[in-house]
Amino acid sequence: xxxxxxxxxxxxxxxxxxxxxxxxxxxxxxxxxxxxxxxxxxxxxxxxxxxxxxxxxxxxxxxxxxxxxxxxxxxxxxxxxxxxxxxxxxxxxxxxxxxxxxxxxxxxxxxxxxxxxxxxxxxxxxxxxxxxxxxxxxxxxxxxxxxxxxxxxxxxxxxxxxxxxxxxxxxxxxxxxxxxxxxxxxxxxxxxxxxxxxxxxxxxxxxxxxxxxxxxxxxxxxxxxxxxxxxxxxxxxxxxxxxxxxxxxxxxxxxxxxxxxxxxxxxxx
Length: 269
Description:
This protein is mainly α. The chain has helices spanning 13-24, 32-36, 39-58, 62-85, 91-105, 107-110, 119-136, 152-165, 173-193, 196-216, 221-244, 255-268. Among the domains are: 13-104, Helix Hairpins (Orthogonal Bundle); 118-145, no CATH class; 223-268, no CATH class.
């Protein structure tokens, strides 16, 4: 098996990658680490690779994106191989399922429906198709197929979008801002009267409304927070660099010194 020509064929494409994974998972001749892995142990890597794809896109590093997309594809092949070993499905089944889904969800492209639709009509049609799919899976609730494993910020956004499609949503941004003020007040009160678990619940409510506010402002909360993180890193590095010129480090400086340098970095931007 080690001299399998497909494994060493640069033009082997997806079949080559599938064969490589088969070899890595072979109990007798494969990689011991790969053989030991399960769906549960590989899932965190799958999530990590998806974030690294997003990071490469944000940095506009197209060479890096090529590699990160390959890493993400490897995760799909990995899970498919483990499923094949358990007799559940294989890579071909995965490809067929997503291909069938795309054709079914785009009758205006692959069927005989009119392609000239408004964006709102497209959304309505999409929700109708997905509702039919959920019914086929015994998922009758509007929120049933919003994955539990999504990062909390992204899941909050998806839950809110899904509820909004059936009319459960505020109609004005001012209503969201009022709710934000209300939740902030409840959190402030909770600090004085409630236990840690209840305070956490109030904090969660505030975060949930913040996600909703971003949605109503047509902002991506995840992208906004990533930008805020990058800004914080950039300004804190300015603090470190400025202190270094004086032979200091942040842990040897006062808060007032660092705050002044932060404001300087902010003004420079």
